[in-house]
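# nightly structure sweep
# worker-07 picked up a monomer target from the shared queue
# config: single-sequence mode, recycle default, output format = structure tokens
# input follows
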Amino acid sequence: MNTTAMDRQKPDTIYKYEPCCIVLGNESCDLDSAVSAVSLAYFYQQSKVIPKNCETNTNFLPILNIPRRDYPLKTEVHYLFKQYAISEDLLTFRDELSEEFLQNNKLVLVDHHVSALWKNAVAIYDHRPRDVMAKVADDCNVNLHVVGSCATLISELFIQNKFLGEDEQIALELLRSTIVLDTVNFSAEAARATPKDIEICSILEDYLKAMDNSLIARNELFNDLVRARSDVSALTPAQLLRKDLKLLANDKAGKFKIALPGFPLPVQKFIEKPNAAEDLQQFAKENACGIILLMGMFVDATDNSVHREEPNLALHLHQDSPL
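# output follows
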């Protein structure tokens, strides 16, 4: 599956003399955002069914809307892409685009529809209700439908255009995997799946089973992705601090910040990791934090339920801090 990224060269250089349309996922870069952006760019590039405002020779570039250094934090994205030999070198990240490149090229917004770059957007695919604050260009093709997963909307595009051959197998499997995870495997208790999610996933599975009878069962697929999402064993303390981070300011000028990093392990285990103290100090300095509240999680052995720990307080003093 060609994601159109080229050997880590800067897109500004690659597409200097060719028209380019950026397919941009949202800033969470969860599995839905990443797979939807990559699959939609692939669809446009290979099917030649493209937004009406794009030239016929346009290149479509999927962008993961995070810095490259944060890619390891997206453990379920990293896991699933690795299963299909989509290595990090084939991907392009938000911090690799210059502001000039963003301003001078067309854009497709995926899994979000509020953007400072709205004037450049030629299409939008999102599964949230329309935000009253969203600005949309008059000639933008807007596809907003409340469903369990944005991947459902991208899959529907493949199905409607009968772009379902063996060359598309990887894209279809990625999309199906994402729908299963986003809908919590169509759990009635979670109530995330809509009739459209159920219908589209079933159609994907019909085509995929015709190509390969060994299609992984939904339950097994879901459990694998949940495990991958919570597997932080390969992350350093510095990466764990950024994985699920909220920053608060407690003065009007926003100069004194409180950091609330959360991670799926007890705080005590985090503190025991090599270089944890040094990484905490560097993290506080980089984010100009006066207070860091570490929020861990633990599993209750009696019923395997997951619980948040009470926040643990860590103070960091440096010359720029009011403390």
